[in-house]
Every structure is written in structure tokens, then in C-alpha cells.
Recover the amino acids of this structure.
């Protein structure tokens, strides 16, 4: 994986053939040859084997990605063209349109992967379908490395879909069966149907964009809504039980079991995690046939290496690595953790209780029976969930920007329901295909179980401190986790009362330090968060905190809240309903729940079905969703106060012109005359802001939050002269396709003598207030200044 990763970085950033490719391959082959000659009997040979594998992987990866590079530059024409391709994924909702991963054959005969952006239409081509489209090709830009890591050579904006059909082959027939059942399961478009589609058919694309999908992620249940090794284990157990009842030979049993597993993997869109699990099962079952021991870590290593060699983009699949880490943790650490979990009740019992139990044979027998029941029903599932969660935290924490504190109990109560859905659902779909009348009552039962699962997950997410936001680097997490895992495996102590006491004390100390860090008071300050192309601003003083807007991304907001130690919110204010100002609202679910959420007065009545308003209602209840209008005052603390300047009339559309415009005043001595003022404009541009000059002619603002990310109409000379601003803040995403901030806006600010700070250049921008002035600091650079 390291070789493939380094090769991808080399090709993406240099974009030319690596001149050291031949030499790298030669060194790798020489190292492998040295190992073969010495039979790996000394440390030098083992070290040479490691180096040989790494260098060979680097050479192979460089050759593969260079081939992708050549296709990127010479794939297709830029003018509209006709193309026939095979859909490889379920349509996923993007920021602009739905998109799918497809494979096509070029006129040169070479195969390549493309990302199609579909036009707005009622029905989108499903996984496994063959489509003929007319569209325009675009090569990848410098900001599309994620697509490059999937082996995609370019994007196509589809103009017209000429033809869609399922080919008459195995993939086409299975995909057709899958689409029919998708439509049955999701006919009502409710959460239970989307959950069933994810669990049974591997289609979690729609569920991931819903509130329920976010709930499963923050409660540590994301692995249950995407096909993984646990799903295949349930299917394999079910099929194996049926085959055993048929009295088949061992060879026939193994062949049929592998065949059914392959069909299930195809049915669930051949996800990397499912392919990994299927490969492991095939190797283990093959080992049985040839009389070799079924060694899980070896089967895992062989399967993972083969998948990465055959398809290098697999190295960048989160689902694949979650599956690998979980299986590795279970194979290596489960016996150790299970021993401790099983020993815990025994260590807690008093010696006198043990003596009484031994003296009474009846009590002793009942106690043993109860102990076996507890071990089977509680301790073993507890050890299993604990091991799987601990093994995958180095991946899930950076990927989901949070660490779930309720993952263990959530898995214990929800996992059995998912197993039940799999055990009943797959036979129901197959039998319903043969006998359609049977399917309707079966679906009622499945929807009831799925609804219960969703309710339990949402209940867990509503618990205080269900999860904590975190901002962590993936590589750092992996390195730290690897060191900790090696240390634990080397020094793992036997279960004892003294060891449990040491572990308990260490945990309490860590918890105390964490609470101390979270509850540390802060001075009056305002922070413009770096959350990409959007707005998110934190205002706080001591333990009081208000968030204005949430930015577009759930993950970016969580990371920003984490790195600024925001662990409590008194209120959230949404300036208007554009997604770049309220799209991240779901990030607060289960992490930092606010007491109140404010919108512009009138929106709650005019647009009750708007996504932001329904998300706010789901988050804290409709009674806690309030409206703000001009003249309203929110007291943040003794020294900080927010005053609403606009809009004066009830908002009806939630667009830029309806933006809440607020003034933040800092009053150090509470004499009613603020020492500093900040104007927060949302996306209200100059035509709207001119009203403030007329309504509040004597107001001056030391700091201006530039409207609409520095658009062409965000500022003008009149407002800058009237307000006498000294500093302008611009929240903007790096390399955004809008061209924000515009040269016109920057020129106007420069000519007015206003200093400018931008989040794309400076990161989080912090303004800290005091009686002597404002101190400014920013995260991407060390210097700070004040005025």
C-alpha cells in the first residue's frame, strides 16, 4: 500500500514519467532475489524482502498511474460526443447533480473509468446498466485528486441519455434483480427503506445523504449500512447451514458456498470491503480442501495484496481499509480482549462469595449455567464490538471527524437487528422473486425491524456526549495507532485485579485532563472558521458560545469546532438558506447540540419544508427554532452583544437579500459605549447594505465580514467610507470555481486602506478583544498583530 500511495503522489504531482522507474524496479527485483537465495533465514534477507516488496510496488504503481495520466490527457475530444459505457456504481448526489462511476472502451481499444454528471431527470441509470450518452469530456483538474485515486481519467457532463438497458449477462441479470428490489424497498422513500437497501443490496448512496445516515456514522454504526465482512459472514452462515442440510460432499459444499458469496458480492455492487471478505473466505475454504490450516491473518494479507496489485485504486478505498483493520484486529487482539472481558466479573467477585458457591452444589450449578449464558450473550459480543471499534478508530476518526462515545452500546443493541434483517431479508428477496405474494408481508416485517434499528440509533445519538468532534491527520493517526498496537501486543498483561485498577486510574486521569481542557475559559473573541467555500463564525466569551452559519460541509465544520475546542453552543444563527451557510448543520447532531437555532423572522412559516429548517427541527425540536428581526438583541456575555440590523420585514425566500445582518459589539467596561464593533453581513451585498447607512447613520464598524465571500458586488467605496472599517475578513474556499474573492472587491478594499484577511490563505482567523484593542491571529501562519 505504501508503494502504491507513493507512486500515486509522484504521478499526480509531477505528471511526468518517473525516470527512476526502471532503476526502482531493478532494485526491487534484486532485493527479492537476495531473499530467495538466502531462504529468508537472516535479518538481512527479511529486510531485503521488505525493501524489495516496497520498491516493486512503487515501480508497479508508477507504471499504473502513468498509464492513467496518459489517458487523462488523450482520452476523448472536448466537443460533445456519443459514448457507450457500463455503470459501476449507484448514482450519488453531488453538490450540483447526481453522478456515477462508469467504465468505457476508447476508440483505441483501451478501457478507462469516467465520472458522469447526469442531467436532471426522473430515473437515473442503475448499477450494472449499459448506457449510451451524449456529453462533453473534461480532463481532471488539480483539485480532483480524489477522482484520480479511483482510477478516473476525466469527467463527462451528460447532455442526453440515448439508451439504457441491462445486458444479457450475469452482471446485467443480477443488476436487474437488484434494481427491482431497490424500487420495492425504497418505494415510500422513508428511512427504513433506505436502510434496507443499504444493508441488503449495498446501496447506501441515498441513505448517506440523510439525517439517518449521519446518525449511524456518529454512533459508530456506519459499518452496518455498507456491505462488509460481517454481512458476508451472516450470508455464509445461512448458506452453509442450508447446504449442510442437503447432505452434500465437502468439496461440493465449498464450491457452492463460494459461488453464492460471489453472487452476493455482485448483487451488492462489488464493493472493495465485500471483495476483501469474499477473497478471504475463498482462501480459507480452499485451505480446507487442500488440508492446510485456515489462518485468518495470512488469508487477509494475501487477499489485500492481490486486490491492491490487480486494482491499485483499491488502496484508497475507505471501506476496504475499514474491513482490513477490523478483521486484523479481530484476528490478533480478540483473544486478548476477550480474556479480560470474561475475567472482569470473576475479578469483581469477593472470595467469600466464591467459597459459598463452592459449598452449595445447587447454587454452583446454577451459577455456572448463568456464567455460560452471560459469556455467550454478553461478554463475547462485548469483546467483539470493543475490538472492532478500537481497531477502526484510526480510520474512522479522521474520516468522519468525530469519535463516537456510544459506539459500544450502540453496536450491542443495533447489530443483532441488522443480523436479523440479513437473515430474513435475503431469503425473502429470493423467495419473493419466485413467489411474489410472499414478498409483501415479508417487507412489512423487515420495515418494522429497520424502523426499530433507526429509532435505537437516533436515541443513542441524542445522549449527551454521544460523540466528540476531532481534527486529526490520517497518517499521524495510523502511525500512533501502529505504535500503540505493537506496544499492547508486546506487553499485554494477564487479567488481574491490580491491572484493572491501574487501567481504571489511567482512564480516570485521561478523562479528567480532557474535561479540564474542554472547560477551560476563553476571553471574548470571534473566530472565522476555515471551512471552505462558505461561512461559519464562532463568537464566545468564557463558557458562552454562539455559532453563526455552519458552512457547507459536515466534516469541515466538525474539524473546525474540534481544533478550536468548541464543546458547547448556546445558539446557532443561520443567516440565510444557501447551502454554503447551513449545509453543515447536521454536524452538530450528537456532537455539540445548541440550545436554540435562529433564522430570519418569517422563514419558519414561509418555508417550513426547507432543508435547513427541517434539519434544525430534527436536531433540537421545532419549539426551539426561533426567528430574528431588525432590532432584536442577543446577549452573548457581559461584554459581547449581537444586534440584528436587517432584515426589517419578514423574510420570504431565504436568499441573499433576506440575509440576517448583525452587529457584534464588545463593551469592556459595560458603560454602553462599545470599544469595538464587527459587522457580520451574511451574503447581503451592497444594495442591501446601503440600507444600514440610512437606518444607522452614526454606526461605525472596526471590522467588516465581507459579504458573499468577496463577490463583485460585496463592497463599494460608499459603505467603506461611511463605516471607517480598518479590517476586512473574507471566508472563501481555496481554488473555488466562482473566482471569489474577485479582483474588483480586493481592489476596492485596498484603495480604501482596509487590511484583508482570508481563510483560504490564513486558515482560522481569531480576533480577541480586550480593553486595549483587538489582537488578531491566524492558524496557517505564526505572526499575529493587533490594533
Amino acid at each position: 500500500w505504501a508503494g502504491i500511495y507513493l507512486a500515486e503522489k509522484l504521478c499526480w504531482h509531477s505528471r511526468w514519467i518517473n525516470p527512476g522507474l526502471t532503476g526502482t524496479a531493478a532494485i526491487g527485483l534484486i532485493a527479492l532475489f537476495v531473499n530467495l537465495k538466502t531462504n529468508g533465514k537472516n535479518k538481512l534477507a527479511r529486510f531485503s524482502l521488505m525493501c524489495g516488496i516496497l520498491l516493486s510496488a512503487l515501480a508497479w504503481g508508477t507504471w499504473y498511474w502513468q498509464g492513467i495520466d496518459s489517458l487523462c490527457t488523450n482520452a476523448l475530444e472536448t466537443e460533445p460526443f456519443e459514448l457507450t459505457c457500463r455503470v459501476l456504481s449507484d448514482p450519488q448526489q453531488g453538490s450540483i447533480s447526481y453522478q456515477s462511476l462508469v467504465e468505457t472502451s476508447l476508440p483505441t481499444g483501451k478501457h478507462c473509468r469516467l465520472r458522469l454528471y447526469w442531467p436532471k431527470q426522473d430515473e437515473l441509470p442503475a448499477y450494472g446498466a449499459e448506457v449510451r450518452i451524449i456529453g462533453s469530456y473534461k480532463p481532471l483538474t488539480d483539485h480532483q485528486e480524489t477522482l484520480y485515486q479511483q482510477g478516473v481519467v476525466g469527467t463527462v457532463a451528460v447532455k442526453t441519455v440515448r439508451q439504457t438497458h441491462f445486458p444479457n449477462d450475469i452482471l446485467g441479470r443480477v443488476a436487474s434483480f437488484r434494481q427491482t428490489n431497490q424500487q420495492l424497498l425504497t418505494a415510500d422513500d422513508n428511512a427504513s427503506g433506505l436502510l434496507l437497501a443499504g444493508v441488503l443490496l449495498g446501496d447506501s448512496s441515498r441513505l448517506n445523504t440523510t439525517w439517518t445516515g449521519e446518525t449511524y456514522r456518529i454512533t459508530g454504526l456506519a459499518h452496518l449500512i455498507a456491505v462488509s465482512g460481517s454481512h458476508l459472514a451472516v450470508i455464509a452462515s445461512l448458506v452453509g447451514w442450508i447446504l449442510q442440510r442437503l447432505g452434500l460432499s465437502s468439496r461440493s459444499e465449498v464450491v457452492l458456498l463460494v459461488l453464492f458469496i460471489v453472487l452476493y458480492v455482485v448483487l451488492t455492487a462489488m464493493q472493495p470491503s465485500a471483495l476483501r471478505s469474499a477473497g478471504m473466505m475463498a482462501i480459507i475454504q480452499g485451505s480446507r480442501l487442500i488440508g492446510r490450516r485456515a489462518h485468518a491473518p495470512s488469508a487477509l494479507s494475501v487477499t489485500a495484496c492481490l486486490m491492491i496489485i490487480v486494482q491499485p485504486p483499491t488502496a484508497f478505498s475507505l471501506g476496504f481499509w475499514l474491513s482490513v483493520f477490523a478483521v486484523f484486529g479481530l484476528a490478533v487482539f480478540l483473544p486478548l480482549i476477550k480474556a479480560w472481558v470474561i475475567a472482569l466479573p470473576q475479578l469483581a467477585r469477593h472470595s467469600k462469595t466464591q467459597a459459598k458457591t463452592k459449598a452449595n452444589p445447587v447454587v454452583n450449578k446454577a451459577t455456572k449455567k448463568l456464567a455460560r449464558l452471560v459469556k455467550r450473550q454478553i461478554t463475547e459480543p462485548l469483546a467483539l464490538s470493543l475490538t472492532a471499534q478500537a481497531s477502526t478508530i484510526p480510520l474512522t476518526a479522521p474520516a468522519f471527524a468525530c469519535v463516537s462515545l456510544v459506539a459500544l452500546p450502540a453496536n450491542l443493541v443495533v447489530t443483532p437487528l441488522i443480523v436479523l434483517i440479513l437473515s430474513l431479508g435475503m431469503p425473502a428477496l429470493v423467495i419473493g422473486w419466485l413467489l411474489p405474494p410472499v414478498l409483501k408481508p415479508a417487507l412489512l416485517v423487515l420495515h418494522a425491524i429497520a424502523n426499530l434499528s433507526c429509532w435505537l440509533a437516533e436515541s443513542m445519538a441524542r445522549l449527551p456526549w454521544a460523540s466528540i468532534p476531532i481534527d486529526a491527520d490520517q497518517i499521524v493517526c495510523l502511525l500512533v495507532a501502529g505504535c500503540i498496537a505493537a506496544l499492547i501486543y508486546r506487553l499485554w498483561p494477564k487479567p488481574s485485579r491490580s491491572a484493572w485498577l491501574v487501567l481504571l486510574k489511567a482512564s480516570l486521569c485521561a478523562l479528567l485532563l480532557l474535561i479540564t481542557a474542554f472547560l477551560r475559559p476563553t476571553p471574548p473573541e470571534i473566530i472565522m472558521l476555515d471551512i471552505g467555500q462558505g461561512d461559519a463564525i464562532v463568537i464566545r466569551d468564557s463558557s458562552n458560545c454562539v455559532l453563526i452559519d455552519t458552512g457547507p460541509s459536515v466534516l469541515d465544520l466538525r474539524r473546525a469546532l474540534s481544533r478550536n475546542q468548541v464543546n458547547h453552543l448556546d445558539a446557532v444563527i443561520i443567516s440565510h438558506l444557501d447551502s454554503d451557510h447551513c449545509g453543515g448543520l447536521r454536524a452538530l447532531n450528537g456532537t455539540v447540540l445548541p440550545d436554540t437555532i435562529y433564522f430570519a423572522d418569517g422563514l419558519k412559516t414561509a418555508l417550513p419544508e426547507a432543508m435547513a429548517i427541517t434539519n434544525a427541527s430534527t436536531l433540537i425540536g421545532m419549539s426551539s427554532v426561533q426567528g430574528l428581526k431588525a432590532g432584536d438583541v442577543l446577549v452573548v456575555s457581559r461584554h459581547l452583544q449581537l444586534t440584528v440590523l436587517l432584515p426589517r420585514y419578514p423574510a420570504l425566500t431565504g436568499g441573499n437579500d433576506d440575509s440576517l445582518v448583525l452587529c457584534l459589539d464588545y463593551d469592556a467596561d459595560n458603560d454602553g459605549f462599545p470599544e469595538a464593533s464587527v459587522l457580520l453581513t451574511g451574503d447581503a451585498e451592497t444594495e442591501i447594505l446601503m440600507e444600514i447607512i440610512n437606518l444607522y447613520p452614526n454606526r461605525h464598524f472596526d471590522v467588516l465580514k465581507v459579504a458573499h465571500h468577496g463577490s463583485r458586488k460585496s463592497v463599494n467605496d460608499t459603505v467603506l467610507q461611511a463605516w471607517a472599517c480598518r479590517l476586512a475578513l473574507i471566508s472563501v474556499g481555496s481554488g473555488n470555481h466562482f473566482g471569489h474573492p474577485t479582483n474588483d472587491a480586493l481592489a476596492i478594499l485596498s484603495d480604501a486602506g482596509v487590511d484583508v484577511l482570508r481563510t483560504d490563505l490564513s486558515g482560522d482567523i481569531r480576533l480577541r478583544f480586550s480593553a486595549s484593542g483587538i489582537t488578531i491571529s491566524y492558524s496557517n501562519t505564526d505572526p499575529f498583530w493587533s490594533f
In short: Residues 350-359 have pLDDT under 50 and may be disordered. The chain is about 50% helix and 15% strand.
